[in-house]
């Protein structure tokens, strides 16, 4: 006589550990009433709009930098190193919103690609990061592409570009 199989849900439920003392068992799908989200009028969210616009333009910048061997993160790191030779890993991480460990890893990649020179004597000593001639050449090309994107944004979305100038003026 063939063995009768039980439904998977029953088998999984049977294998669950009993609830710990003082804690109720987690609800099953049968325990949760069917609900719907409250009906609201659609409203404009500036935060969601900013995220959507930002993602679109970040994608365009990524595509423009790709054949230069740069990501937006590498572009930012090179910009910080180029504008402040000798910048510390801690400061580089802070400005880039990454951990110091991630900054070390990213800089190692930039060094391996010949874009940055790291003359740091040893671990724990003050860092001496500098952009190389190759890094400068790549950054010049990257900045030209960024200027083209800035121009496109200003032409296609002049009010957004103007408001971003206002935001920058308030931040910087």
TrEMBL record:
Top-level division of the source organism's lineage: Bacteria
UniProt xrefs under InterPro entries: HTH_MarR-typ (IPR000835), WH-like_DNA-bd_sf (IPR036388), WH_DNA-bd_sf (IPR036390)
Biased composition (Basic and acidic residues): 11-20
Stretches the record annotates as Disordered: 1-41
Every HTH marR-type domain range: 63-162
Gene3D superfamilies: Winged helix-like DNA-binding domain superfamily/Winged helix DNA-binding domain
Pfam families the record matches: MarR_2 (PF12802)
An example molecular function term from Gene Ontology annotations: DNA-binding transcription factor activity
Protein name, UniProt field: MarR family transcriptional regulator
Source organism of the structure: Microbacterium radiodurans
């Amino acid at each position: 006589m063939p063995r009768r199989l039980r439904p998977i849900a029953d088998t999984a439920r049977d294998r669950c550990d009993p609830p710990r003392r003082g804690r109720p068992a987690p609800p099953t799908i049968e325990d949760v009433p069917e609900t719907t989200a409250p009906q609201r009028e659609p409203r404009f969210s500036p935060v969601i709009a900013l995220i959507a616009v930002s993602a679109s333009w970040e994608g365009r910048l990524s595509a423009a930098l790709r054949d230069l061997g740069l990501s937006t993160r590498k572009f930012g790191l090179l910009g910080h190193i180029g504008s402040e030779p000798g910048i510390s890993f801690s400061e580089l991480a802070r400005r880039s919103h990454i951990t110091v460990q991630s900054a070390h890893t990213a800089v190692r990649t930039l060094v391996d690609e010949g874009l940055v020179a790291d003359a740091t004597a040893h671990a724990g000593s003050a860092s001496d990061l500098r952009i190389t001639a190759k890094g400068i050449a790549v950054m010049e090309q990257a900045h030209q592409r960024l200027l083209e994107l800035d121009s496109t944004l200003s032409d296609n979305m002049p009010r957004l570009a103007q408001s971003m100038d206002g935001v920058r003026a308030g931040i910087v």
